[in-house]
Design goal:
Number of helices: 12
CATH superfamily of the largest domain: P-loop containing nucleotide triphosphate hydrolases
Helix content: 40-55%
Oligomer: single chain
Structural class: alpha/beta
CATH architecture of the largest domain: 3-Layer(aba) Sandwich
Strand order of the largest sheet: 3-2-4-1-5-6
Number of domains: 2
Radius of gyration: 19 Å
Order of helices and strands: EHEEHEHHHHHEHHHHEH
Length: 322
């Protein structure tokens, strides 16, 4: 599937998309709501576009830290709850859908605010990025191998054939490893050659929220404890009936994979909570490494606590020139 280069958003007269990026638990949801309210108060309609790949899934609310409706302050949100857990979230589909949503917002005279920590999804949306061909048979064979042999075996193959691509993918990320090997097998070229370049396909400005690791780790630990107390186990039990165990993407999500192991009796409650926190911390560092080198991101300190949210919003508003 090729990137849609003719979208209205790419026009020189289109307003800049505001992207709020950064690691998990840095306060992106609260800041994005604040930016939207700032624009609305000044007469510009503002709508939020979700860029978190796990928040596409219906029913994956607690474990993905999806903002409850009551906390959205009436701001319209798009691309939440668009997939069943049995479906596969793809970067290509997100690019197509998100660009269409942004065009709709612009056509209504509004401003789009994209929020998320899924780096490749955000880059595919904002930057020039065309997708290599796919082959369902090749992908199915590689996915079957990942299930039987584990992602580590496939990762070692990727490391040999395309070290640059391997350096950008976590060894546990079976989905992206499979995709990289699929592209290499189909095209005979390195997967890294098809990755997006840092050149906007649509007018955009990015603000990144940062936090020191000790602050971020404490926030992640508290969030995981709250998720567990808030009913994560029951949420995963409900999702079992919807097919999360057979899902390609959803069952591997942080919080859900570990809780499934708990339901299978592999992990105690304490072990599960600690493992979710550990994996979330690892994810946060990966996200910071992804966004950190991009010189186009304007960095501000995320809110330290609830009382600090107004300051973080004000700093973010200044950073994007509003």
């Amino acid at each position: 599937m090729e990137a849609n280069s003719s979208i209205a958003s790419a026009g020189s007269d289109a307003p800049q998309v505001i992207a709020v990026v950064g690691a998990t638990a840095t306060g992106k949801s609260a800041v994005s709501i604040g930016i939207a309210e700032h624009l609305i108060e000044r007469g510009t309609p503002a709508e939020i576009v979700n860029g978190d790949s796990m928040q596409f899934y219906r029913g994956m609310d607690i474990g993905s830290a999806k903002l409850p409706v009551a906390e959205r302050h009436g701001v319209t949100h798009h691309l939440l709850d668009t997939l069943d857990v049995s479906q596969d979230a793809t970067v290509a589909l997100f690019q197509e859908q998100a660009r269409a949503v942004i065009d709709g917002i612009h056509s209504r005279g509004g401003r789009a605010i994209v929020v998320g920590g899924s780096g490749l999804y955000l880059r595919a949306l904002l930057d020039k990025f065309e997708f290599p061909a796919t082959d369902p048979d090749v992908r199915a064979r590689l996915e079957a191998r990942a299930d039987v042999e584990g992602p580590g075996a496939l990762y070692r193959e990727l490391l040999e054939s395309d070290p640059e691509a391997a350096s950008r993918i976590q060894p546990q990320n079976a989905k992206r490893i499979v995709r990289a090997l699929e592209v290499i097998e189909i095209t005979g070229e390195k997967f890294s050659s098809s990755l997006p370049v840092k050149e906007y396909a649509i007018p955009a400005v990015q603000v990144g929220l940062r936090a020191q690791y000790d602050v971020l780790d404490a926030r992640i630990d508290a969030r995981v404890e709250a998720m567990w107390a808030g009913g994560l186990v029951d949420e995963v039990r409900r999702l079992e009936a919807d097919g999360i165990r057979e899902a390609i993407t959803a069952r591997r999500a942080v919080g859900y994979a570990e809780t499934l192991r708990h339901l299978d009796g592999e992990l105690t409650e304490r072990e599960t909570i600690d493992l979710i926190a550990q994996h979330t911390r690892r994810l946060a560092r990966k996200q910071q490494r992804w966004f950190g080198p991009d010189p186009r991101v304007q960095w501000v300190d995320g809110p330290h606590d609830a009382d600090d949210v107004p300051r973080a919003i004000a700093d973010s508003i200044r950073a994007v020139g509003l």
